[in-house]
Amino acid sequence: MRIASMLLGLALATTGMAQTTFTPTLRQGMVKNYELVSDLTTSSDRQNAKAAIKVDSRMEVGQVAADSVLMSYTYTSCDITGATAMQKMAESYRVMLNKPIRFSVNPDGSFRHLLNASEIMLGLSDEAKQIAADFANDEGFKSVLDQTLVTILFGKTLKAGDKTSYSLGGLFNIERDFTSVDAKEVVFKDETNMSEDALKETLRKVLEKNGADVGDFESTWSMVKTMGMAEAKLEGHGRLLMGDDNWLVSGETEQTTEQFGVSMTARAKITQK
């Protein structure tokens, strides 16, 4: 009886640690179309603002070789409404509208290289080039794929309790905790807290990127602290439903960030068309 109980306990423990590998079917000529609908809401002491975003995208599988697969990712339509300042947060969709992003992945779907960085920049205005420069490189585009619901599981082997991390716009380093994992449904939560030093450096980078004079930055930072804005955090959660081919069928996320006295909530739903 004691041996039977031990075996049962071992079986249960093994089941609890079961892993799922998400290797998408990658067959030349495959096309996956998705619709993303999201809304952004910001609030601060001075104002509240909202924006709504609807983006259609297409993922295509190109040449398939033994060690790599060529793919392209294209935003095929984009509709952004709401406060002008909020719309600018989604400007990358407009910048890349109908401009295929070509890249390669390993046979398990994990990212290898961005293949057309120079082509992406062609024909863009100076302002658009500044936006595209954030992801027109291997590191930047990998960050995009790490945040894109269609691709965040590609090439991953996961079990409940596993954690990964990714960067959001270079401002947050987010820890993602996969709270529930099986072949059909994955649930996760996101969380981060920035130290004062990290937040200070973030503010400096944002000001420099926007062309501000940061010569007397210490005074600027002292003012930020005096106003009680020297803190930043992010909390979020998401749920993904997967198909038999390990491609996303649908997903939804919600994230709330607080940074420099401004709170923003972003909700998104994506559906395979």
Question: How would you describe this protein?
Answer:
- With 273 residues, the chain is an alpha+beta fold.
- Helices cover 26% and strands 43% of the residues.
- It has 8 helices and 13 strands.
- Strands 6-5-4-3-2-13-12-11-10-9-8 form an 11-stranded antiparallel sheet. A two-stranded antiparallel ribbon has the order 1-7.
- The protein is globular, with a radius of gyration of 21 Å.
- Mean pLDDT is 87; it is low at 6-16.
Keywords:
11-stranded antiparallel sheet, two-stranded antiparallel ribbon, 43% strand, 273 residues, 13 strands, alpha+beta
Mean pLDDT: 87
Strand arrangement in the largest pleated sheet = 6-5-4-3-2-13-12-11-10-9-8
Shape: globular
Structure summary, number of beta strands: 13
Number of helices: 8
- Cα(first) to Cα(last) distance is 54 Å
- What is the helix/strand order? HEEEEHHEEHHHEEEEHHEEE
The largest sheet, given as strand count, sense and whether it forms a barrel, is:
11 strands, antiparallel
Radius of gyration: 21 Å
Strand content: 35-45%
> Helical percent range?
25-40%
Q: Could you say which structural class the secondary elements and strand pairing correspond to?
A: alpha+beta
Low-confidence stretches: 6-16
List the helices and strands and how they pair.
Blueprint: H1 2-16, E1 20-22, E2 31-43, E3 48-64, E4 69-82, H2 84-87, H3 91-95, E5 101-105, E6 111-114, H4 117-121, H5 126-132, H6 138-147, E7 156-158, E8 163-168, E9 172-181, E10 185-193, H7 196-209, H8 217-226, E11 232-242, E12 248-259, E13 262-272
Antiparallel strand pairs: 1-7, 2-3, 2-13, 3-4, 4-5, 5-6, 8-9, 9-10, 10-11, 11-12, 12-13
